[in-house]
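Worked problem 6 (solution included).
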Amino acid sequence: MTKDRFHLQGEGWFAQAFAHAPVGMALVSADGRWLTVNETVCSVIGYAEDELMEMTVRSIVHPDEMDVLLASLTGLLDGTQNSLHLEIRALHKTGCTVRVQLCTSLVRDESEQPCFFVLVLQDVSCRKTGSPFERLPAMSGDRPEYDSRLQSQLEHSNRMYRLFSENSQDVITITSNDGTILFISPASRSVMGYEPEELIGRLATELWHPEDRAVFESSAPDLISGGSSFECRVRHKNGCYFWFESTVKPLDDADGGSEHILGVGRNITDRKRAEKKLRAAKERMESFIRNNVDPIMIMDSESIVLQVNEAFENRFGWSGDEIVGRPLGELGLIPPDRSEEIQRNIQRLTSGESLKGFETVRQCKDGTKLNVLVTAFPMNDERGRLSGWSVSLRDMSDRKHAEELMINSEKLSLAGQLAAGIAHEIRNPITAIKGFVQLMRNGYAEKKEYFDIIASEITRIEMILNELLILAKPQTVKLERQDIRVLLAQVTTLLDTQAILNNVQIVTEFSPGITHISCDENQLKQVFINFIKNAIEAMPGGGEIVIRLKREGTDRIRLSIIDQGCGIPEHVLGRLGQPFYTTKENGTGLGFMVSKRIIENHHGTVKVTSCENSGTTVDVVLPLAHEQQTGI
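Solution. The predicted structure is:
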């Protein structure tokens, strides 16, 4: 076969390939108008060829995809990209959406000005092609009315086919039924490393990996007759294998038989690598969720449960079948009194914020309530849009129980340390009572003021003993609206004797205004006693402790306990709050840690500032209670 004859026959084959390709092929002008399309393009988007000629590419692209497409086309026009490969949604004539894979390159003229785009379009909503496409009507030369106008149209079509063949980024082949390559487009250079002339006459399967060749040969008749897509590894001219996806379709002759096979293929190595990485990442995530000891649940953006792990099923009592697919609000997992908390958290997650470990209450299937530590973060899709949330629910029941034991232990420790000072405080009123009783025995019973003094002293003893019992007696945590000034007054009464014995004066500076907080009276008294007692012990030579109370903004109050003691070195400040770390000879290191935890449970903060030999300041900031708030 001479070169000219082969060239003419190749153009004829490519004309068939363009018309009957199982993927959409088209040429589009630089301003987005269709120049020529094959039947598959029309089939995919539902418009006839003459309808498309009056439209632009923009009219068939989903509006949400336009920005991505225009950005990619701009890369082709400014020369930063040689070709474009992306998956977008197209609008079918019926109004439905079709997902298509789009491969595009730009053809330029001799002066490097853009001429038109070469476009390959494939419906990936369903990989398998349906029944074979109908053949385009063949032009017959038997009719004398085929004049020069039709001949010109034919030449124009051939030019378009040739331009498409020379500039398509996909490899287009026509083979005989035994797999011999009869025609291959110039894309073989960039994709496979071969010139088209090097492959003509060779079996297409010669370049395939032996394992893939064996699989294909066993299923080739079904694949080809059905017009299907398949993947295989193909050897590049440099000897390396790459992944190749090919879509094949038999070409019918005039008698309805099949003499040739049309194939359109592309290099999908990058896609296969990406898919492998995606599978590995998915498997790692699935393994993390499946084997995590903490209960985990995955929800979509509408708060529908998508997945729970085994730890969730075991801890909360719901099986995956019971909970998956249902809205979170219908499960009973969230107690009714926590609905506002959930709405606030969903708003934070929707805005892209993560929830990094906050304590709350969740309810099991049997109605049991658990203290849990919730960690949640938003999950985005491939376009960066919110697609759902991952929520971890760590059971804090054992930890809460341990904290309660620790708090009670610290209470007993404080009560023991205060015993000596309280004994001295009680001895004074008892001495007065004994004296007045002696006077009454000696005939001075008519002195009414004696009874008043005795009654007041007994009342003082009773108050001191009550304060001591509050510390020693374990109580259920109950938040109530309390005036912090009253709590501080009661605590200073309890510590006055110890302060006097250490030559320390306690001075209070309370700013006017509302000073009510929502708190557990017992626990906060424990905190205040601990901080004031530490201040007293820090001044063995005596001094002054200032207890200052003032508003912080509109909804918080700041309590400052300021001493004139020896101060705390900087390297020690950073370790305050660590269990069993203490600077005292007989200390446990638990006092400050317990106090800090109590303040945090009251939604407050503790800050310690100190300078050696200049004293220490403990700042406690707590939220104010609303006027109508009586408990939580």
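Discussion: The first helix runs from residue 3 to 20.
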